[in-house]
Sequence to fold (503 residues):
Amino acid sequence: MNLIIILAIVVLHGWIFSHNALATSTSPNIVVVLVDDMGYGDPACFNPNSKIATPHLDAIAKSGMRFTDAHAPGPLCHMSRYGLMTGQYPFRTDVSVWPTQPLIVDDQMTIASLAQDQGYHTAMIGKWHLGFREEGYDRALRGGPIDRGFDSFYGIRASTDIPPYFYIRGDRAVEPPTEKILANRTDGWSPIQGAFWREGGIAPNLDLADVLERFTDEATQVITQHAARQANKTAEQNAKQPLMMYLAYPAPHTPWLPSAEFVGKSGAGMYGDFVMMVDAQIGRISQSLRDAGMEENTLLIVTSDNGPVWYDEDRTRFQHDAAGGWRGMKADAWEAGHRMPMIAKWPGRVARGSRSKQLVCFTDFLATFADIFEVTLPDDAGPDSFSFLPALLGNDTPTVTSRQELVMQAGGVRNMMVIRQGKWKLINQLGSGGFSKPKLLPPTADGVTGQLYDLESDPAEIENLFAKHPEVVLRLQSTLNEISRRKRSRLPPPTPSRNPSSN
Fold:
């Protein structure tokens, strides 16, 4: 009997292994490139009137799909990244603690841990901005990428204008920030534009102007080494392992530091020049995938974490609309704060030159990847994640499992909330809620306490219909309250009813 049980276990283990190996061998590589503070109107593929040349982004769009209704889960860096990684709206946690604590808790599923569980090699390069347990830079920085599902990490703790400035490999500082850098700003721009950075500690061999290309070098090395490992595997060894790489560029966020070959090349000043440099780095990633023979089996997604820091006077001065016609900018509850250019390329699966109007939030990456892996998310994972795989594959017809609404918090007013459902968008207070002025206004004399816009007829959010459609306000506010109360918007599948005949 014992021998029979042992043989059964061996056979079952072999079946499970071969089944997983088959799934792994046919799964695509996934590369997510998240740029920083690039607006909807910067890439020419989203704005034909852009004053910035973006040939590499345009080429990806030509070979794949543009999503025209894609949104960051929050209009600031850390908010957006939290939602992308976890599938949970960032307003559900206290994102303000990121400077000293990890935002993602120990048992929380991420896009990386999901992929890792499916046999992927997972790598992250770039800007984390989701916190570490910091107990000194000569000690391990726990709670970061390698504790949240990534096999490797090379990057920085936050933006290149937020000290201390130092590189991290794995969970250790490559060099502690033992030196000091003085604050810097650029004449002719606002205090938070140009070559702006804050005073603070910096590692001895770190140059802020080198960070962008350094990350591209690291990412291309990850791709090249991964391809070499797979090429060296024999038929007798494990099935080939796919790659999931998350490349989080800290640009074109400040400081705007374009290299010499891009200075003066755009029609949008040093910001536009820096966007051109970012585009060139993305071109290097695309070329690396081609050179490694990985392009044909890779889903490549490129988007931005939130809107640009681009004022009305910048738009007038350069005749360049970084917001692409949407209202506002970074941190705002208005569309330019969170509606992002998003493109996806997957040869043979995503139609070339296609476009999707599906409402998408970055929290949806988790459910979409689970859909690609053909696995079901646990009920406690990705509470605000909906798969956009059908839209990616060309079906824009909404289903019962498609995203129906979007909820988020403004970047500068903690209790200012936004809900979008169909053509309607409700902001529960007056003002931008972010960097645009006025950030916050009191209720009007006639009792208008919030903003209601019909984005179908008024995409620029000019006419506030709050007083004209109280029934819509009431419905949206009720939905917002319910999503906030139940702590999830993706409901678990219904529990099967018991069969009375079995009683």
Summary: The radius of gyration is 23 Å. The mean pLDDT is 92.
